[in-house]
């Protein structure tokens, strides 16, 4: 039973990370780099829980404060902090979509361990884990896409304000997600489905926009022309 629960808990995170990683078709990041950021995400869970517990004791658990400060605020800040100080100024961050890949990796590392702890502590059934895979786990990935897109814009465009937005927008999205759960406790699953669907649509648009700005896009196109012989 324990093995099946753990497998069910970790599969969504790995599956979503693989999906977003394979989207990077122009200049895919080294797997070891992505794995490193995934592990960092795992390690963020326990200090984040400690900080959140202290804030709960200090600020209480009103739905708004918990959603936008204690949960969304703290969790998105620690992810933002890691990406900004470990990835943002590094040479391997060399195209806009890299922001998405590394931020999603950290986010899904965090969500995966959270899901494992949820499975172990509550000894929940696989169906509940499936619901978490479709909603909270994918939510973390989509918050990561938003953050990563803004990081990419902050590094590779001259438009001001995107570094600030890379923290603000994920906090708002995460806060709305959690607030829906707290405001509609008996029917939150059905209430949140349209919001998650909207997040998916927006995230896919941001993924496409990030890929379109890749400096390796035309190199990839020319290589494909040479391979197929269509440039003759």
From TrEMBL:
TM annotation in the entry: 6-22, 34-52, 64-88, 100-121, 133-154, 166-184, 190-207
Keyword Transmembrane helix: yes
Keywords: Cell membrane, Hydrolase, Membrane, Protease, Transmembrane, Transmembrane helix
Keyword Electron transport belongs to the record: no
Membrane topology reported for the UniProt record: Multi-pass membrane protein
Chief subcellular location: membrane
Enzyme Commission code(s) on record: 3.4.-.-
Endpoints of the signal sequence: none
Gene Ontology biological-process annotations: proteolysis
Gene Ontology cellular-component terms listed: plasma membrane
Primary role: Involved in the degradation of specific anti-sigma factors.
Family classification: Belongs to the protease PrsW family.
Entry protein name: Protease PrsW
Source organism per UniProt: Insulibacter thermoxylanivorax
Lineage: Bacteria, Bacillati, Bacillota, Bacilli, Bacillales
């Amino acid at each position: 039973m324990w093995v099946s629960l753990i497998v069910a808990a970790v599969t969504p995170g790995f599956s979503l990370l693989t999906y977003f990683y394979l989207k990077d078709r122009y200049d895919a990041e080294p797997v070891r780099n992505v794995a490193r950021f995934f592990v960092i995400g795992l390690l963020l869970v326990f200090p984040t829980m400690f900080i959140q517990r202290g804030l709960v004791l200090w600020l209480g658990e009103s739905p708004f404060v918990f959603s936008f400060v204690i949960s969304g605020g703290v969790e998105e800040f620690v992810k933002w902090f890691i990406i900004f100080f470990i990835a943002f100024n590094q040479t391997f961050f060399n195209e806009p979509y890299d922001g998405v890949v590394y931020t999603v990796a950290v986010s899904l590392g965090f969500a995966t361990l959270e899901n494992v702890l949820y499975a172990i502590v509550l000894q929940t059934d696989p169906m509940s884990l499936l619901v978490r895979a479709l909603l909270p786990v994918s939510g973390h990935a989509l918050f990561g896409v938003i953050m990563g897109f803004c990081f990419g814009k902050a590094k590779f465009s001259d438009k001001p304000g995107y570094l600030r937005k890379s923290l603000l927008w994920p906090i708002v999205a995460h806060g709305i997600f959690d607030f829906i759960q707290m405001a509609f406790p008996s029917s939150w699953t059905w209430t949140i489905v349209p919001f998650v669907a909207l997040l998916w649509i927006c995230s896919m648009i941001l993924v496409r926009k990030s890929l379109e700005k890749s400096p390796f896009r035309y190199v990839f196109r020319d290589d494909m022309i040479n391979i197929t012989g269509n440039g003759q």
